[in-house]
Structures are given as structure tokens and as C-alpha cells.
Amino acid sequence: MPSGIMTSTSDLRTTVGTHRTPATTKMAAGRRCLEGRARGLRPRGAWQIGPSQWACAPGRGQWGDSAGSGSALLRLVVLAAVMSASRAQAAAWDTGPRAFRKSWLELLEGRVKRQKLNPERGQKLQEAAVHLLRSHQNLDELLLEVEGPRCEKLCLSKLIDCGSSEGHTSPSNAFIGSALQDQASRLGVPVGILSARMAACGVGEICQAIGPPRPTELLDVEQRKKLSSLIEITQYLVANSMFCRLSFCQELWKMQDSLVLEAVWHLHKQNIVSLQELLERHSDVQALVVWLCRSLGLLCEQVEAPSPSADVSVARAVLTDFLQMLVLRGFQDPAEGRTVEQEKLPQVASEVLQSLLDSVLEALAASEQEGPEVPGAAQCWLNMFSGQLYSSIITTDAPKRFCTHALTQILTHSPVLKASDAVQMQREWSFARTPPLLTGLYQKLLVLLSPEELLGHMQEVLDTREVNWRLVLSCVSTLVICLPEARRLIGDWVARLVARAFENFDPESLVPAFLIERQAALEGPVFFPTYADWFKVGASLPSCHLCSLQATFGSARGPHGRSKKALVFLFTFLSDLVPFEGHQYLKVHVLHPPLVPERLRPLLTDYITLARTRLADLKVSIEDMGLYEDLSSGGPTQPHSQAFQDVEKALEVFEHSGRIPATVMEASIFRRPYYLTYFLPALLRPRVLPKTPDSRAAFIESLKRADKIPLSLYSDYRHACSAADQKKPESPMEKAEPSTPGSLGALEAALGTFQAAVADPAQEAAVSAHVAVISERLLAVLEPGDTPADVPVIPLDVLSPELGQPQQEAVGLLLTCFCQSLVATSSSTPPQRQGPWVELFVRLLCGRAVLPAVLTRLCQLLLHQGPNLSALHVVGLAALAVHLSEMGPVLPHVDLGPPASAQGLSVAAFLDMLLPCRTGESLLLCGRFCTAAIAYVLCKSPSASSATGHGRLSPRLVKKFQFVVLRLFPEAQEPCSVLGDIPWRPLCLPSVDWTKAALHLWRHRALRQLLKEREFELTYRDWLQLELGIQPQADILSDAERQDFHQWAIYQHYLPEPIAEGGCGGDLEVACRILTEAMIDHCQSARGQEHLENPDLVRRGQVVHLDILCRLQEMVAELELRQSGTAGRHFLFEVFRRRLQALGSTVTVASRLLRQQELLLHKRILLSLPPTVLFASLQGQPAAVDCAEFLHWVNSELRNFCHGGALTHDITAHFFRGLLSISVRDEDPSLLVSLTLAAFQTECPIILISALLWWPRLEPVLTCQWRQHLQRPLPRGLQQLAEARALAWSCLSLDTAPLTPASQPSWVSAAALHFVIQEGWREPGKKELQWLDWQQEEVLLFLLFFAMTGLLSAQLTPHEVSDPLRAVDVCVAIAECLQKKRTAWLALFQLTETEAALSRVLLQVASDQHIRMLPLAFFSLLPHLDPDTLIREDAFLHVAVDMYLKLVQLFVAGETSALPIQAAQSQQDHQRDALGLITKARGFLLQSIPRCPERSCLNMVELLEASKDLDPEVSAALRKKLPAPPKLDPDLYQEPRLF
Fold it and tell me: Which value, to the nearest 10 degrees, does the dihedral of the CA atoms of residues 151, 156, 161, 166 take?
């Protein structure tokens, strides 16, 4: 084997195996080896140690395996001794004879003799050897100690330098490893140490190639190649255990000044040595911190400096890995075990991060003073705190601890500002004025902290450290804006601070509370309650109970109201703030002062005087403050501008409450200068008054009635409005184009430049810049108060849309510019090739500050001034509507007021509403607008699929286009040829032929294809809805033309068309059903949309469209002829039943009113059709009339909406006319009518009762109709009704009682008597009721019930009864008569369906409301009856308690709130309310219960349970009255003793 190459590991094992000799033999061998080295020779086979014994194990600070055999350990000790004494021995061998010194053999032999073998010597010897070896790992010194011939140095740089002449073309890693082993063998050092030093030298040479003035921390391409080769070799050495990381780290740190971060990062990424291990091996902590801060700062500058993208990506990766390591090691869990070296790393990481963050904060502070530019290093470092930073360490808590530490460092950085400075300057620290880099840093640090943790930590910092108030308050603003859930917590935090301050009387807690509250309020009421609201009434955040209880100084519950000391503390604090306060906060304190007891008013007076003095020094007048002024605005608001905002707010409050706002009333008294000088002029702006008064007109009239408007000012306002009404409207678009100086003139100039750029294709790239200029000029035109916060709904008054003068002119300029630009570009370029200018301009119009004004102006133009629009404006506005509809999902909805839906209308639906088809003019405008819009969309996407049309076209717009074309152009009703070109360019000409353009578009292939889509079909129902909206008196078609069009549309177009395509499928009944539903829907919606029409065009009482109603009558008549003689359900009642089921229950008053309105429409439609539609057919032999559906409709629905127990005259007469008409079809009409009326006595008695009521008006009509067919008397059933009326009149006029016919039911006679009594009381002299004694008991019971229903009707609708007191007298007289006859009349108040015919008939006659209101009738009668007689009746107590409980339930449910209850005891009694009646009933009941016999208290268990919750006192009285349970033997209740 050559002398330069080491033996292999197997040779080593062989050598060690052959030298298992005693220690003395080994020492001799060692001496011979040493002597051989002194002569420059190496004995063959001696001390041939392989790399596995010398190389340092990866990750460990030792050589080889310390737990090896005893011979290996002994060789380590010998080598250490040789290395330590080599220099002295060499000198002795060279200078003198060997006799002067003792040999190593003699020394060792003597020591061996003196020491005995010990079991513990092996462990101690191992530790001593390792310690000795670790103390001599300096490779330079080690090589100097070992003498030998000088050999050439192995230079790795030549092996990795591909450009060197000495380098190898393709160096072999195995060859390099073998050469390193040979070199280490010749030097006598471990190969791991040698390779580590060589690798470190290579890294150093690569880094030093940058040069002494090192301006970069990155490598160039050539250096990266060299480093890659070196890393490849090093990876081989590591893999073969020929590399010592410990030595490598030490050698690298010797070259610290030339070390480059990218090189270190590559060593980390390629697993040569990790960043953590490398930093841990540095001996000087402070030097390491300085080096890291300088290197990382330089690298951040290089990231932001112009450089190749590859270098930037590498630099960002280096920064990310370093930052992750620093965060992970600097903020790891303190409980984790660490070595001595690892203890340094957390300190280094923490100091580095803190130093870099300090430098960033200093750079931000310097940039605000010197200029807006922030150094690139600071920007880069802040940008590194992103989600990528935490991606690999998110499983630990280190990022959260780092965020907490960084937040503490930020809040406490440079605490030079005092709290007084913060009070003065905090307005400049809002979110909008804070540097974006700082707010971005806050947001990035808050990612891992919950709002609760964050605020808790901020409170801890405020309590324990001096803080920088600017940074603290800017952090609060960031929280309010960026974390919605933190807003409530901030309110709670402020409340806790206030509570703690007043508990301890500590101003140190009150100062942060006021600062934090004001800072949060600076962000606006959208994000946080205003300071004024907080100061006077407390915060109004959800779940913020502490805010509403503690932080309220305007109520007695406030913390200042507990004691005089607390009040003095508050005013002392506020007085100390006065020299530093801004005017807006002083205004709040003066106008909304804390609530103070009368005896302590001097404290408040002193403070008010001090605050007013300070306001005077600031030259601020408190009288000019607005009623609803927002104190979070940036500066003082001009009174004129604030007055307009106050007017809008006052109108909003007035619309919701219907009353003059209290703030306005207070201002009219206590702030009269502002009220008269600013508020009233802003309210009384001259305008064209609407024919139907709107909310503004109603508000003005309310103020006038309250004497809050001077008569002269009101008179001037009315004259100015009259003058405005007399002016003729100008062309609506041109009148908004005056050339004005100032900001409006600048906007006009910018729009002119924009139009020129749009017209020039060469300037297409500059369009976006022009739009930006327009946006800036537009914001300058709009006042600050015109920029609302982001709201989901835009309120808009369509009846009288108004804009301020600047808004009106600015929006007029914008719309004119858009229309002119679109038409100008379309003359040469089709819409699909016009570039992005349209989308950019539309986005400008959709800005939150501009969109409300744009929509208001569109409402003015299309809805109110449509006929005056020119063709240019129609085309431009149609295109704009297309784009606005396309952006609809991201735009807020439009609120039209209470008649509209609560969610408002989408922008597309709002634009569709602006195009009503009501009159001839609106129909023509709608046709032109729809033609232009559809043509624009088809030109915009000529080759697109139908999905594109779905997104850009409103289906309602397409349907209106079809409706207008089919209605106005008869040629469109015929089949037509299909055309291919789109008529867009002709629309842009000044003289456009709209008829030709519409018909051309109607025949277009793309439109015909689009109309096949179900979404765009004009169905039969859609056509009816649009046709019903036409006002016949203002229609463009004549009556004959309209009738012809209806005939064609129904019978030729929609009736034969399949149902799947929107037609009726040839079924006439389906056509009738759809038409009926459409008429009802139209009538229901007409009331909600009446404010969109001209009220003069809507005739009062017109419920349905007469022409469409005529069509329904024709179709129903034809349908009856087709279905003659066939049984079946009538379609009308199916429609009615389905619609009523859809309405649901009638629990609330609103639902009952809606159901009543629906029923009135049903009845109106029935009355307009032939009366025979109420009857299905004649069935059986003898024939019977089938009207079950009508009877069910009357019993279930119509019965509940009639007063007095009878139907109205119109439906009653309609029914009997139909009955007579259908009866003449039978062989015996008289018998058929009589049998039918006899059946009604059990099936629908309310029909007969209604006939009795209206018989004087029914008899001549029915007699005339009957004699037209038959020359004979009326049928017997009708004659009996006449006889019942005659008998009733005879009872009232004669002194003797006539006999009651046995064939008449008692309730018929009672009903006739009831109606005759009502009519008789209206005649003078008819006042006696002696005939009651002659009537049967059953007749009297029915009569009493009918009289009570009359009484309830008088209370529900007093205007329908002439004398309600007479109704009480009649009821009392009948009840007294029944008492005389000892009849159980109290059963009338407990009707059930399971009892006798009395209850069944009464429940069929009376409405559900009358049944529920029986307690009112009961307690209205009690005061007039003898109480002793009542108490003697067994059922009285049960009925009285039941009626009282039901009366209380009615009051709780609110059903008695609007009833004018009349319980007259004498002629002087007044109208009493329900509560008064309940009080009297309760008193009567409590007095009566003790007097009732015990037998009347039986069966009261259920009532006792109910009364316990409703009235405990009544329940207690009843329990006292109940008999005590019998006393039983207590032994009966004991368990038996069985054993």
C-alpha cells in the first residue's frame, strides 16, 4: 500500500485484532511509532486508524464512538498525549542526547505500577480523553504540533473551480474523499476536521470573491455554480462520515466578515449545517446579533432595489427561512429543554427581531417628517410578515408569542407623547391617515391573535408600561375597521375602564377610556357609535350591557350618579381636558351635559362656563351646530351643508314615526337662530309640488300646524313653488350642462378631454388615465356630506326625485358625456370593438358616492321627463341601463319607501320600473328604449351564446319589447321572414325611424332565437299583467282597436298556443282562470304602485280594467254554453280557494285586512259576471240546485267579513237573481226555489237572514224577474220571508202578539224582529217593547243574540249604527224578559258546535270576530241588570269568570285596542276604553264572588288554573269560595305496616 493512502476499515479491524497485547506492549509500540515519525518514516501497520474512528459524527461534538473498546480508548489517550508533548520531544531529539530525559516507556511503566485496575477507571478515562481532545481541536495548532515532512496542501477550491487550469474536468467525489483521507493520514488528524476546514475555506473563498466593499448579500451566477459543486462534495463527505459539522461551524465564523447570507442559506437548504446549529456555534452573542441585523437589513434593501427576478425570489426565500427560524427559536416554549449552546439562540433571535422592528418603526416615523417615501428595507421587512411566515411553524405557539411580543414592542416604542398630546392629535391618527405599512403590520400581527387576547394584552401593556399613544390609538382604529367582532369588545373594554376609574377614582383609567372611545368613534357611525351617543346615552352595540349601564353620563344610572365624590371626579376630569379638547367634543359636553342632581347644578354650570369660554377662544359658535351633526367628521361642517343633512335625517325620522322629531322641536325653542337661519331655508326649498303630498310636504304642513314656521316664510315658499310649477320643462339633458367655473368647470373640461380620447383610437391606452382624472374631479364637486357610507339599500323618492344643485349638474354632465361618446364611437366602430372605455366609465358611475345621484337622475329622466328625451339620449341611456343591470349583483338595492319590499329592488328591477306601460307616451318611450337596449346587447355579443344574453339582458325588458311591438304594429302579428343584420348604426343617427328599427329587430335571427328561451317568453300571464296596466283613457289605441287587439291576443295567439310555451293549450277554462288571477293580482299591486303613476289618471273606484273584464264576461258566457248540463266545480271558486289558502291564517290585524281586501276583490269579480256562475247545475229528480261551492265560500270566508250578522245587499241580490234564473230551467221553478231555501235553513242560514234584512229592496227586483218568466206569485219560500217581516212589524205596532207560523224556525222570526226593531228605532214614537212578554222563549234567545251582535257591530263600526245606546237598551230589555221567564239565557255566551240547534245556527250566522267579542257584550249588559237576580243563577259565576278571562286575553292580544267601548249607565256616560271596562268587570267580579252560592262554584278547576296566570287576585277569591275538602282520617294516607 502506498504511504500516502490510509488503509481501509477492514485493515484497521485486522490491525487492531492482531495487537491485543498488554498495556506495556502497546506503549512500546507507541514509542517506536513516535521515533519513526521523528525520522520522517512511518512503520508499516502501526497506528493505521480509519476515518470511522476519527471523523466527527454528524450533530455531535465528539470524534468517533466514545463507547468503543478499551484498546480504541487507549489509542485515543496515547495520541492525545503525543500531540500535547510532541513539540518538547522533538526539541529534545534535535538538541541533545536522549540520556538526559526519561523515555515515555519509563514514565508510563512507572504510572502503571502505581495504579491498580478499577472498574470505574474506564468511564473516567473516557471522559478525560474526550475533554482533552476537545480542548485541542484547533486545526492550525494541531498541525504545528505534528512534525513531519512538508507536503503540498490539498486545495478544494481548485477542485470546484471549473474555470481553473488546475481543476479537474469532472472531479470524482470518491477521489476527493480518498485524497482527504490520505492528507489526514499524512497529517495525523481526523479526516472530518480536515474536510470541515477545507469546506469552510472553500465557502470563504467563494464569498470573498465579492470584494472588500461588500454591497450585497447575494451570490452571482458563477458563485452559485461553485458553491453548488462544493456542496455536492460536502454532501458526499457527510454521507460517508468524513465531515465534522462542529469544526465546520467554527471555521465559518472565523470568516464572519466575509460570510454571505445566501451561502449560509444554501448550506442550510442542502442539509450541510442548519441555521440553528450554525448560530448556536457562535461564541459572541452581541457580535452575532450585529452581523445578523446588518446582513438581513442589506438583504431587504436588495429585495426592494431593481434587480433580476431570480435574485429577488432567492432573497425572499432567504429572508423567509431566516425569519421562520428566528421566530421559532426566539419564541419557543420556555419549558422545552435546551443545551448550553441552545440557550444563546433565543436571546439572539429575540434581539435581532426587536432591533429590526425598531429600525422599521424609526423609518416610518422619519418618513412622516421628511417625506412620504418609506425606505425599501422597512417595506420589505414588513411585507415578510405574511401567512407564508407561519406556514411551517403553525403547529407551535411560537408565532402567537412572537405576535404578542411584537405588539408590545410596537405599542411601547418611543413613548414620548403624553396623554394631553393624544387628546389634541388623535384625529390625525385615524385609520385613513395612518401609513398603510403600519396598518398592514397591525393586520398581519393580528392574524394569530383573537380579539379577546389582543385587547387583554393591550390592557396589560397600558397598565404596566409607558406607551406610544399614537401607535396605541392607530391600533384601535385598525381593530375597528378590520375586525368587526372587535367593535363590541372595544365597547366592553371602554365600559370596564370607566367602571374601574369610578370605583377607584383613578384618572389613569378614565384617560384611556375616553381616548379609545373617541378613536373608535372617529371611524364613523357605520363602524362604531358616535362619541355623542356614547357620552349621553351609552354605546348601542349588541351584547354591550356594560356600555349601556356604565359608560352613560346622560342618565341617572351612570357611574357619576352614585355620589357627590363621583360627580366631582367627573367634572374635575372634564375640566382638566378643556385646554386640550377639540371643539367637537366640547359641543357634545355642552349640548348633552351629564345628568346632575339639582343640588349639584353649580358643578355643571362651572364646567359649561369653562367649555363655552374655550369654544369662544377657538372661534366656534355652538349655535351653528347641526341637529344631527356627525362629530366623527374630519373638521367643522359648514352650517349650510349640515342643514341639508339635518333636513334629510328629520324627514327620515318623520316618515317612520309620523311625528315631528323631538330634536327639531327642541331646536325651534332652544336653538332658534340655527333653526330659522339654516334649517328652515334648507327645508323650504322651492320645487314643483307633487299632486299627492309626499313626506316632505307632510312634514312642512305638520310644522306649520305646530306654529314652527313663520307665516311670511311659508307664504314665500308657496309662491316660489307655484312659480316653479308654471315653468315649462326644458330638454331634460341639456338643462344640466351649464358651463360653470371652479370644480364643476374642471369636471367639464376633464369630460371633454375624455370624449376626445374615446373618439381617437390612437389614445385608447390613455382612457383609463382620463377616467381617473374624472373621478378625482368628480369627488371635488361632490361635498363631503354627499359621500355616504357603504349601505345595502339606496333610499329614493320616485314621486319627486330631487338632487342638490352640484349633484344635478355633475350627474347631468356625466350622462351627457356617456351618451355623446357612445353615439360618436358607434358611428364608426361597432360596440363590440369600442375598447374598455364603457366598462371603465360605468364603474365610475357605480361608485358609492355617485350611484345614488345617477339613479335619481335616471328616475327624473325616464319616469318624469321621458317624452322630452332625444334619440341620442334614449340610445345612450339604454346602453347604460344594460351595463348597470349587468353589474346588478354587486350594487346596492333601491328602497322606494313603505309600499315596496323590505329588501328593496335590484338595480335591474328599478330600471324596469322606470319604464311603465301606462299611457301612449310611456308606451312609445318604452318601445324605443327596449329597441335600443336589445340592439346594443346583440351588437355587443353578435356571436355569443344565449347565456351571454341572459347575463346582460333583463327578461322583463325583452317582454316589454314584445308587448309593445305586438300592440303597436299589426304587421308583427303575422309570420315574418328572418333577417341577419342588427339595426344598431341607424339608431345612432339624428333622424332615426323607430318603427322601422323595431320591426327590423323583431325579425332578427338572434332575437328570434332568444325568444325561444323560456325566460324571455311573453306568456299569457305576462301579457295580461302589462295590458292591465294600460290606462284606457290615455291609450294610444282607440276603443275599437284595443278590442280587436284583445280578441286577437286571446283567441288567436294565446288560446291555441301550448301551455309549455306560455299559452292556454286550447282550454278556455284555463284562459279564464289565468285572466281572473291576473286581474286580482293587478288590483292588489295597483295600490302599492299608485305612487308611481299620476294620481289624476287613476279614477277613484275603478277596481279592474273594464275592457279585460268584458273579455272575461265573454269567455265565461261561452264557457257556460259549452258546459251546460254538466256537473263539476266552477273554476272561479277554485281560484278563490287557492288564493285564500296561500294567504295563511288571520292571526294578526294586518293578515285579516289583507284577507278582507282579497275577499272584496273576489266579490267584485263575482258581481261583474252573470249570477248563474254561482250555481253549478241542476241535478236529480226532482231537480236540486248545486251551489255547494258558493255556500262553502259564504260560510267559511264571507261570513267573517260582514257586520250585523248579514251579507251585503249586492251579493245577496246577486245570489237570488241567479237562483231565480236557474230555477226557470226546471219543470217546477216554484218548488225548486222553495226546496232550495228550505235546505238553506240548515246549510247556510246567513243567506236567509240577509234576505230578511234586505227584503224591502229585494222584493220588487225578484218579483219583476219572476214575472218575466212566469205569471204567478213568488215561490212559497220567498213568500215566507215576506210573511216573517210582516209579522215582525205587526208585533212592533199592535198591542196583541200575532201567532208565529209553525213552519218558520224560531231564528227566522227572531231575525225578522231584530231587523224590524232596528228600523223601528229610527222612527219617532216606536219606543215600547211590551210585546216581548208575548214571545216564545226560544225566539227571545235568538233575538237576544242578534241584538248582541248588533251591539258589537255598533262598537266595531259605530258609524253604521244610528244610536248605539239604543242597542244596549234593547239587549237589556230582552235579557230582563228572559230573567222573568227564568230562561237560561247565559248559555248564549258559551256556544259550542256539539250542542243543540241553537248553538249550531248561531255559530253559522255570527262571524268569528263577533264570537270572540262576546265578553264585551256580556260586561256591557251587566251594569244594567239586577245583580241579585244574576247571582242566584247557578251558571252565572262560571260564565262571568270565563267571560272575564277571555276579555283579558282579548286585551293582551290587542284586539280591543281600537274599540270605542260603550257601557252606558246613564245618559251622561262617556265612551269608555277597553281597560276601563276590564277594571269595572274585575271589580264587579270580586264583589260578586263572595255573594254567589257554593253550588255555583262547582266545576271551576279549569278556570282556576287559567285565572292563576291572568289575574291572581280573582284566582285567590275563587279559591276562598270553594268548599274545603272533607277531613279524612290521616291514617288512611299512611302506608300499611306489612311486617
Answer: 20
Helix, strand, or coil here: 893? Answer: strand
Cβ atoms within 10 Å, residue 1391:
17
Nearest to 1175 by CA among 1108, 1115, 1224, 1109: 1224
Q: Please check whether residue 227 is in contact with residue 266, taking contact to mean a CB–CB distance below 8 angstroms.
A: yes
Query: CA 601: distance to chain centroid?
Result: 45
Average pLDDT score over the chain: 75
Q: What is the 3-state secondary structure (H, E, C) of 248-287?
A: HHHHHHHCHHHCCHHHHHHHHHCCCCCHHHHHHCCCCHHH
What is this structure's pTM? 0.56
Q: What pLDDT is stored for residue 1085 in this prediction?
A: 77
Output the CA–CA distances (angstroms, integers) from residue 520 to 486, 490, 536, 549, 1507, in the order listed.
11, 8, 16, 19, 52
Pull the grid cell for residue 1224: 226557470
Q: How far apart are CA 932 and CA 878, in angstroms?
A: 6
- Torsion angle (degrees, nearest 10) of CA 1300, 1303, 1306, 1311: -80
Distance CA 700, CA 982 (A): 53
Compute the average pLDDT of residues 1115-1127: 75
First to last CA, the chain: 111
Angle between helices 1306-1321 and 1364-1380 (to 10 degrees): 140
Residues 6+ apart with CB under 8 A from 1184: 1178, 1232, 1235, 1236, 1239
Rounded Cα gap, residues 1481 and 57, in angstroms = 103
Measure the CA–CA gap between 77 and 130, rounded to whole angstroms. Answer: 9
Is-contact 1206 1246, C-beta < 8 A? yes
Characterize the bridge pairing of strands 793-795 and 893-895.
Answer: parallel
Q: What is the dihedral of CA 1426, 1428, 1430, 1436, to 10 degrees?
A: 150
* Residue whose grid cell is 390625525: 428
Q: What is the residue type of 852? A: P
Q: How far apart are CA 681 and CA 700, in angstroms?
A: 12
Of 1181, 1086, 1080, 1089, nearest to 1132 by C-alpha is 1080
Mean pLDDT of all residues in 205-227: 76
Q: Say how far apart CA 584 and CA 624 lie, in whole Å.
A: 12
- Could you give the percent of the chain with pLDDT greater than 90? 10
Which one, of 1420, 1418, 1434, 1423, lies nearest residue 1382 by Cα? 1434
Residue pair 435/531 in contact by the 8 Å Cβ criterion: no
Distance CA 362, CA 413 (A): 9
Nearest by Cα to 6 from 190, 152, 161? 190
Record the cell numbers describing residue 503, joined without a space: 370605583
Q: How many CB atoms lie within 10 A of CB 1095?
A: 12
Between CA 1129 and CA 1069 the distance in angstroms is: 11
- Residue 917 CA to chain centroid, in angstroms? 35
